[in-house]
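Why do we care about 3D structure at all? Because function follows from shape, and shape follows, mostly, from sequence. That is the central idea of this module. The next example makes it concrete: a single protein chain, its amino acid sequence, and then its structure expressed as tokens.
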Amino acid sequence: MKKHISIFILFLPMTLIAQSTYFNIYDDGTNKAAGDILVLESGNTLLPVLSRNDTSWFPELYKFNADGNVIDKVEFPNNSDEYTNIQKLHLCDDGTLLAFGDYWTGVDIYDLWVLELDTSLNVIDEHLYHTGLSHIAIFNSITDSYGNVILFCNTMDPINLWKNFIFRLNQDGDSLFAKIYDTPGLHFASDILETQNSNGYYLFSIWPGLNYNEGKTSIVEVDYNFEVLKILGTTHNTRNASVEWFNDTSFIASGHRNFSTSPLSTDYIEKIGVSIIGLSDTVINEYYWGQPDTIIQPTAYNNLGFHNSDIYYSGVLNFHLPYTTDVSWIVLIKLDSNLNPLWQKFIGGDKFYQVFSMYVIEDGSCLLTGFAIDFLNGNDDLDLYLAKIGPNGEFLSSPETPQSLMEVKLYPNPGSDYFMLDVRLPEQKNRIELFDLNGKCCLQKDIQNGSNTINTSKLPSGVYVFKIISNTKEVLSGKWVKN
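And the structure:
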């Protein structure tokens, strides 16, 4: 197993980078794990955080300003031996917030914990909903066409089998309807969408008896009362998938995918990426990226975002469980609506990083959060971080936080007799290769850092696959169309 990917290491002069980006680490002596990011209309960022001191785990809510500075923090004490956790925040139509988590009630039983708050993080009301089960893991919430909040999560039964759990509340946090899918087998929720006709929902989950051994996420249609109508197919991704409508008849799903039948096979490779899938389970388009023999995982909560027609997804490169002393990289990739890569960012390489959530804000910048462990300096604490990357991939790291970075831009796409290739790669020996859809290499050219003009006048019109090779490794691939 390759442990270090040195090709991504590059330190940029700070004078070349927009000052509105940041990478902030918040270390107050406690271990911290982030929940899902929420950005308010004011521009402030809210983040639920699970913290641990010397005696217990306890939840906190952080508020950051546009520069990533902490401007407010609320702590919820926990006097039990088990943790109580806030995992997700939901913005209601009237500007109030619902915070969702699990609350330990004793003997391995957790209730669904719902807090109603204002944007100053004052608690307006509190609800506990008893499931009789344990360890509730919340994956997504939506406001449906009727103004209700739909929560999709997992819960665990007494013999430790995960089950899908769907819950309807009003925007005051009052319970309306719930269903636990008790089909024998393992359930792993990923995401939820409302159907286009507003009479039901699509659940994205590893469903019992379907594709579990293959690690694929099933698309399950349920009616308004959460009864299963049919199983539409699969997304090719594992359960770490975020899903959004791409148009009226197709989804876009992001996540993790295994490109071989077994982790023990010689050609085993993991990739993260996105696929566009029709309601008939037809893959319309897809883009995946990964490094051979290197573990890559998507961001744990939301890992998909949009700005205009551009698409963002994120993950972590060189990921290991249990956490090891290896370093890892935060990965952020931006695609156009045809799933052509616009740029990639690799941040880190100096610590072990985990990525928990991403959020694309209105100007096209992207927020990423998670924790960092500084194993190299003998520190195994989980330090919370919040990073902001600009809409064109601008990134500034503080002097204490080294970064590694790679950039590739290809345009125009579609093109005609040429295309431009702007690259910034740390290796000196780089090239581009162009293949037709039969896998025949039609063009191979050495490239240098900066702008490169690639002459394609002798190629027939059609769709081509390009590969960027740095030293001897493929670092990027995608499609280019010649008109």
